[in-house]
Amino acid sequence: MGKKVFTNRETEVAKLLCKGLSNPEIARKLIISNSTAKAHVISILHKLNVQNRTIAAYLMGKNNMFK
After folding, report:
1. For residue 45, is it within any domain?
2. Does any domain span residue 3?
3. Coil, strand or helix: which one is 6?
4. Residue 2: inside a domain, yes or no?
5. pLDDT on residue 2
6. Which CATH number characterizes residue 15's domain?
7. Handedness of CA 24, 50, 18, 1 (dihedral sign)
8. At CA 63, angle to CA 32 and CA 60, rounded to 5?
9. Distance from CA of residue 21 to its chain's centroid?
10. Pairwise pLDDT comparison (9 vs 66), residue with the higher score
């Protein structure tokens, strides 16, 4: 996780995901559609090679990705 793996938008989504926001909440906050928010979350999960958002948030927090 040392190198940049997320696009700028994925980084915005990931920060909100780490705060516990749902896909619809992320969509409203970033003024994007629910399906776009979901697509970004799915991309983040694939890039981190995890199966769910809880594990993704844990890994990103553990690795201080947004400090």
Report:
1. yes
2. no
3. coil
4. no
5. 47
6. 1.10.10.10
7. negative
8. 25
9. 10
10. 9
